[in-house]
Specification:
Shape: globular
CATH superfamily: HUPs
Order of helices and strands: EHEHEHEHHEHH
Low-confidence stretches: 229-241
Helix content: 25-40%
CATH topology: Rossmann fold
Radius of gyration: 17 Å
Mean pLDDT: 85
Structural class: alpha/beta
CATH class: Alpha Beta
Length: 241
């Protein structure tokens, strides 16, 4: 029996790897898309390629140019990454300097384009609203509206087969995501979440702190901390894979 296709927006981090493993467990034939948009490092893209190879998933690497992102600390190396207590992240109403304007909107649009082209019935993303860094494009209402818009703007939608937008982690905490990924057998040891590059996570950025708190609350050891990046690996901007 032929499987339904799904396009997974894939960063190589904890959330998107768990979402990819979830989609595969649901029986979808998955295609993954990762993005290089001028981040401080391409370490996460290297992780995405390694995970895609491990899982046997075709990965499209997309390079985007956003020359106006100089105010974003996730892109501009001259800006300091936020360093606040994990309990304060996303809880004070301020959008952090790591926010990339419109990033998830752009990424999802690419996902819908690929899904429309290959006849996929869904795109899968890994945002979550419980433990997050205060990004407005991680909220459920954003994805509900996006799914409605795509139904009007794609060939699939015009033909009466709107592409579903699936966010299986949207209401989960980082602890619940760590537990789900572990239960699914996702290769979490290959994932990378740190906003900084290097051989080991920095432990200071928002993403590192949220991840560490999640694994601690789940009562799990983070397997990625036992698996440093291989010597000689080249985290370069991705190409189509």
């Amino acid at each position: 029996m032929k499987k339904d296709k799904a396009v997974v927006l894939f960063s190589g981090g904890l959330d998107s790897t768990t979402a990819l493993s979830w989609a595969m467990k649901k029986g979808y034939e998955c295609l993954a898309v990762s993005f290089y948009y001028g981040q401080r490092h391409a370490r996460e893209n290297a992780a995405a390629r390694a995970i895609a190879r491990r899982l046997g998933v075709k990965l499209y690497g997309i390079k985007l140019d956003f020359p106006w992102l100089n105010l974003c600390s996730l892109v501009n190396r001259k800006l300091k990454l936020p360093d606040v207590r994990a309990s304060k992240i996303g809880r004070e109403g301020n959008i952090p300097s790591t926010y990339v304007p419109g990033r998830n909107l752009v990424f999802a649009s690419v996902g819908f384009s690929l899904a429309d082209a290959v006849g996929a019935c869904a795109i899968v993303l890994g945002p979550n609203m419980v433990d997050y860094s205060g990004y407005p494009d991680c909220r459920p209402e954003f994805y509900r509206a996006l799914g409605k818009a795509a139904a009007f703007g794609t060939r699939s939608g015009a033909g009466g087969r709107p592409i579903k937008i699936l966010t299986p982690l949207i209401k989960l905490s980082k602890a619940e995501i760590a537990l789900l990924g572990t239960r699914l057998g996702a290769p979490l040891e290959l994932t990378w979440s740190c906003y900084g590059g290097g051989r080991r996570p920095c432990g200071r950025c928002d993403s590192c702190k949220l991840r560490a708190r999640g694994f601690a609350q789940a009562g799990l050891e983070d397997p990625a901390l036992r698996a440093p990046f291989r010597r000689g690996a080249k985290p370069a901007p991705p190409g189509r894979g």
